[in-house]
Description:
Keywords: Calcium, Cell adhesion, Cell membrane, Cleavage on pair of basic residues, Glycoprotein, Membrane, Metal-binding, Repeat, Signal, Transmembrane, Transmembrane helix. The protein is of the alpha+beta class and 782 residues long.
Amino acid sequence: MNCSTLLSLVLMLVQLWPCSLGTQNCSTQNAEQSFTAVRRVKRGWVWEPLFATEEQTSKVPVYVGQLKSDLDKQDENLKYILIGEGAGSIFIIDENNGKIYVTQKLDREKKPFYTLRAQVVNRSTQLPVEPESEFIIKVRDVNDHEPQFLDEPYVATVPEMSPEGTSVTQVTATDGDDPSYGNSARLLYSLIQGQPYFSVEPKTGVIRMASQMDRETKDQYLVIIQAKDMVGERVGKGGAFSAPATVTINLSDINDNPPKFQQRLYYMSVSEEAPVGTTVGKVFAEDSDIGENAAMNYFIEGDSSDVFDIITNNETQEGIVLLKKRVDYESRRRYSIQAKVENRYIDDRFLKEGPFEDKTIVKINVEDADEPPVFTLENYIMEISEAAVTGSLVGAVTARDPDDDDCPVRYSIVHGMHLKRLFSINEYNGTIITTKPLDREIASWHNITVTATETRNPEKISEANVYIQVLDVNDHAPEFPKYYETFVCENAVSGQLIQSISAVDQDDSAEGHHFYFSLAQEAKNNSHFTVKDNQDNTAGIFTAKSGFRRQEQFYFYLPILILDNGTPPLTSTNTLTITVCDCDTEVNTFYCRYGAFMYAMGLSTEALVAVLACILILLVFFLAILAIRQQRKKSPFSEKMEEFRENIVRYDDEGGGEEDTEAFDISALRTRTIMRTHKPRKTVTTEIHSLYRQSLQVGPDNEIFRQFISEKLEEANTDPSAPPYDSLQTYIFEGTGSLAGSLSSLGSNMSDVDQCYDYLTDWGPHFEQLAGMYTSPRSVED
């Protein structure tokens, strides 16, 4: 049964469906619909699935399949037509029998199928007898692609000593063939290079460790993996392909090797003069590991760790032996220390193979050196009484040469400016004596530096500090700590406390100071004041009577005796000044100070007010004078301005030139030398030209020129009316000898009639006089 018949049956069932529900006239409708359905039955296509194999190359078309309609009676009345992808170019059809052929090579990887449409038409009428039908031609795959490793080259890292079966990495290859058809795209992996250290899983491409490997033996391996399609069939048989891939496998380091010293015994030496921190030598331990797995720490074991130390150089991994304490050749000449090294980071998995440490012996010899003298003590403390006389013994220092020959030493004191050479030392035995008296109250301690020098080698010098304490003696009497300002009111009553006093002593008392206060012998009979000792280094001053009068006695001077508890005890008499104040019983300090000041000045309050008033009046008068003088003060240029204004001449008409002498005194502008002889007036132009020619004939060395200058200088020096400043002097002589020549406009023409000024006569009456000065006589006559 073809597709058209099946479709007709489905339509008949749809039409007959209402009859099952009891609809009337079902029989009639069924008969009519059955007849109609039979008439609509169409013939169907008859074909099998179509496939075309790729990569086929043939000079003739290759048969693919055949399309056939059930209406085809083999009478060649029907015609097959092919439409769609590649129709007529890639695929052709025999229009008589419907056979389809492929004419070109196909590539499934580029296009896996083609969609086409077929139609049958009547040759006579060219009308379709079958409806157009769509079908597909699938391209059948062949093994025409090699496997490919897209991520090549591969690089992997795995820790050394990893157990067997540890996954290293995975390689993956792809094949362009169809994985759903045949075995063309089914790949298997195999190991070409890398046995017996690695293995590969055939189906997944996972590379695994096949044995434990040591990085220190070999740290890199080159593994070659092959991927083969066709389920691993031999290449060439059945068309199988293969492809190789290179995998570089690096072994990463783990701490599986302990450090080892290069030597079992090291020899070093150090001078006894070497300071603390000096590098004595280096030790080195090798570790086959790298990076932090090779990091190590060095230690010193034994009693020598207090003399020597060892540190680790993190860059070179060396152990540096340092001097921790000064050594002495005469005390000990050889040391033997045990150095230990161990890894800084230890892998617990390998502890069972042994400790990750090593030990070695270091022997250090002490070298002898010429050492400076050594004092028996680094610091000396001595005592001396401040009462000791000059030349008294303070103490002694001792130094010796530590070398075997025990060279003699010489002592000296490094004097400072502040010491002022208070002490001296015996250069042979080191005894220190005083050279000046000492005073504990000035300086209770003296710090001096004593040097010891070898006589054989003066460059070998050592120093020691000597601290000298000056012991105190009771040589200072107690005294008041300050000046006491004591006042007593005129209305004070008897037994009133007016002042509390105390005392100080510059001496030092081991038991503490204790002072005793009393009135001096000469004041025992004083009936005005009394002193009461409080037995606590203070005392009180009390009045012995009631009432005091300033007019009778303004000041009282009370001598007070102060005794200390030193050995021997010393006393001092201190005078307390008591001022009588104009008050009732309570003292007003400010008012009393004012009264004492006025009394000392010998002035009363009224007199002081009068003096202040006079001072104020004088001050006001002085300020008034300054203000008046300020108002009358003139500008410093006023007098000069007046002088300048005296020389200003105003004209309301045209000036008359040089002959106009009526406007102002022209004699002030002329010098006596020029006016000493009267000359008749000449034509101005002729006179100027003649003077210019005369100046050219007179050189700087001419006697006339020197005489002229001397006369003008004498005139200026002796003229009493001349100002003290430089003034303008007029000279008729023009200098000569300049390389640039004359710059005067007067010398532009050398003759009397060099230039014509006749045009001045045309300027009008205002320029008549000027025209007369510059025009020639002939022009004037014209």
